[in-house]
Amino acid sequence: MANITEFQEWLDMVSVKTDEEVYNLYDSVTNFEQSGAFYTHKEVTNDGYQYFISAEGVLDKLFLDSDQTKFDFIEYLAQNYTDAEEGDVQKWYNLKKEVGRVD
Length: 103
Known about the structure:
Structural class: alpha+beta
Helix content: 40-55%
Largest sheet: 5 strands, mixed
């Protein structure tokens, strides 16, 4: 079991494909809890927090070493896995649900 720091490398391992999976990952990272197949654990450090994100069926975890890295990951997820305006994944997902287009 390793801690991965490269966003895309880890995302390829966990194979995020559907809008629901993208949202569950976003929700887990944002709220530090389990959402769908994802679980985020945060630890306190002298400089702030570190985050460990795990996915069911994958031994390796995504390691985010700071709050800034966490925000960078959320932005990366929004830009590469959604068509969210201004990177607002919550708004994007709510709109998808309203029009019945969550896959």
